[in-house]
Design brief:
With 344 residues, this protein is of the alpha/beta class. The chain is built from twelve helices and 18 strands. Helix 5 packs across helix 11. The chain has two domains: 177 residues, Medium-chain alcohol dehydrogenases, catalytic domain (Quinone Oxidoreductase, Chain A, domain 1); 128 residues, 3-Layer(aba) Sandwich (Rossmann fold), CATH 3.40.50. Strands 3, 5, 6, 9, 10, 17 and 18 form a seven-stranded mixed sheet that branches. A six-stranded parallel sheet has the order 13-12-11-14-15-16, sandwiched between helices. The model has no long low-confidence stretch (mean pLDDT 97). The radius of gyration is 20 Å and the shape is globular. Bound molecules: nicotinamide-adenine-dinucleotide and zinc ion.
């Protein structure tokens, strides 16, 4: 089979011929139809310090996908051959206290598909049946291949009751844009999203009824005034990974405001803790998705008309992966879909 792999501890990726994996008794073999490129894949491609510490080549990368079950182990009852499926990319240990309590998203020893074990950028992927999610075949394949990041956006946004609230999202990357659409769909009052990249803000703008702010030339205080807001934002979703954006968010929250922290900050990013204390803010770290409550919620949101398709900017054949990674690194794209059916 074709597979996109990191072969050596150095920048780059190669399309290789690899053996089709053999499913064990509790595994499922999936014929991959579409994948999408995540920021994590770009880090692995560029071989930055995180990748150097985390990735053990040779390894097939990728974790955002949709595909069809083509074989399964003899103990698998959850899915059948022919089912259209996604996969939860965090394989939980099953042994820790949280796993035992059914709180798998809080597992203290997860293994990442395409990070700690072979991934989905291939014609076939083999994962445990416990990580396979049956999906609604009426949802377009391109959208289904983005369910992993849509899950990050959903999990971060739905931590809080959004109805009637003023929501600030920092970072209009794919996840920030999807979170903005979720906040809109969840009957938030004002939804404001910030970025420093006009291409990204243009995507957010096309999602409809969202106030976009380029923080290089506008202040959140002025935006509040122009929207008739008086006391600050009720909900913050930090989705930039930039400490400047987090500090700006904290300075613009209402007393009692609640913040989801999804963006991955460099090192020990500093904030004004007195603002957290005196303004009585709640900060919550968000990682991954809730297994499988988030999958349920985001499916229902899409079925109810949530449209994330404006976030998908490019659809490429998987053999054009190099162009896809170049586009991702340039910041001039939203989600990029790689098609594994054509020519496969
Ligand atoms: P992305 O890098 O595509 O988007 C981040 C955006 O933030 C970019 O458009 C960038 O221009 C913008 N930005 C930079 N500085 C800014 C500033 N000062 N103010 C406002 N915006 C600014 O990332 P993504 O794929 O959309 O993911 C969002 C974040 O979430 C990233 O930090 C990513 O690493 C992280 N992430 C976390 C999890 C998790 O489980 N916690 C999962 C996936 C992604
Ligand atoms: Zn565990």
């Amino acid at each position: 089979m074709r597979a996109l792999a990191k072969l050596a501890p150095a920048p780059g990726l190669e399309m290789i011929e690899a053996p089709v994996p053999e499913p064990g008794p509790t595994d499922v073999l999936i014929r991959v139809k579409r994948t999408s490129i995540c920021g994590t894949d770009v880090h692995i491609h560029q071989w930055d310090s995180w990748a150097q510490q985390t990735i053990k080549p040779p390894m097939i990368i990728g974790h955002e996908f949709v595909g069809e079950v083509v074989a399964k182990g003899d103990q698998v009852v959850e899915v059948d051959v022919g089912d259209l499926v996604d996969g939860e990319g965090h394989i939980t240990c099953g042994q820790c206290r949280n796993c035992h309590a059914g709180r798998r998203h809080l597992c203290n020893d997860t293994k990442g598909v395409g990070v700690n074990r072979d991934g989905a950028f291939a014609d076939y992927l083999c994962i445990p049946a416990t990580n396979v999610v049956k999906v609604d075949p009426d949802i377009p394949l391109d959208v289904l291949s983005c369910f992993d990041p849509l899950g990050n956006a959903t999990h971060a946004a739905l931590q809080w009751d959004l109805v009637g609230e003023d929501v600030l999202i920092t970072g209009a990357g794919p996840i920030g844009c999807m979170a903005a659409a979720i906040a809109r769909k969840s009957a938030a009052r004002h939804v404001v999203i910030t970025d420093v990249n006009p291409d990204r803000l243009a995507i957010a703008d096309s999602m409809g009824a969202i106030t976009t702010v380029d923080v290089r030339n506008a202040s959140l205080a002025d935006v509040q005034k122009s929207l008739g807001m008086k006391e600050g934002f009720d909900i913050g979703l930090e989705m930039s990974g930039n400490p400047v954006a987090l500090r700006d968010m904290i300075a613009n929250m209402a007393h009692g405001g609640r913040i989801s922290l999804l963006g991955i900050m460099p090192g020990e990013a500093a904030i004004d803790w007195n603002k957290v204390v005196f303004n009585m803010l709640t900060l919550r770290g968000i990682y991954g998705r809730e297994i499988y409550e988030t999958w349920y919620k985001m499916t229902a949101l899409i079925q109810a008309g949530l449209d994330i398709s404006p976030v998908i900017s490019h659809r490429l054949n998987c053999t054009d992966f190099a162009y896809g990674f170049e586009l991702m690194a340039s910041g001039k794209s939203g989600k990029i879909i790689l098609d594994w059916e054509e020519g496969g």
